[in-house]
Sequence to fold (194 residues):
Amino acid sequence: MASTVQAQQGNMTFFVTSVGKGNGADFGGLEGADTHCAALAKAAGAKATNWRAYLSTTLPGGDQGVDARSRIGKGPWQNAKGVVVANNVADLHSGGAKIRGEMVKGRGDTPNEHDILTGSDPDGRFSTAGGDTTCGNWTKSGEGSAIVGHHDLQGLKDTRHMKSWNSSHGSRGCSQDQLKASGGAGLVYCFVAN
Fold:
């Protein structure tokens, strides 16, 4: 049994981080977030090395930055249990993805950590919502905000936003305490860019 679990973890190409970097939404930009994903994947025994955090960025003036969906490859992706999360990018954003992070505390657990940082709209693209939607492109741990999704697909109301894995609402701020206050812990989705 242990060898089966180890083989599945070795072949995983998707996971929800179990811990944040400890500095709120400040990962040191996309490169730092990717490094965080890679370090956690290596510690879990994953064989893949080309890890990317599912994060979007924006440019000054609301111009297009980097889209999360463009960073993560073409799929398919599977979790540590060997379950295919999505076959491709279209499948991932279709509403049929099997994202649910069972090891991460969700709504009803203490503490609730279901807010996963994305900075993205429901299609996985940079947000045009206005204001700061990426905590300064993942470099702020104080004032600001970031769009988050709910890994457990649950929220205060039964709406499409509350059930969105990648675009539910903005965070209360970018610090570790502010992320905790709105139901998060500075966690991100990690995919192998294949």
User: Anything to note?
Assistant: DSSP finds six helices and eight strands in the chain. The longest helix spans residues 29-43.
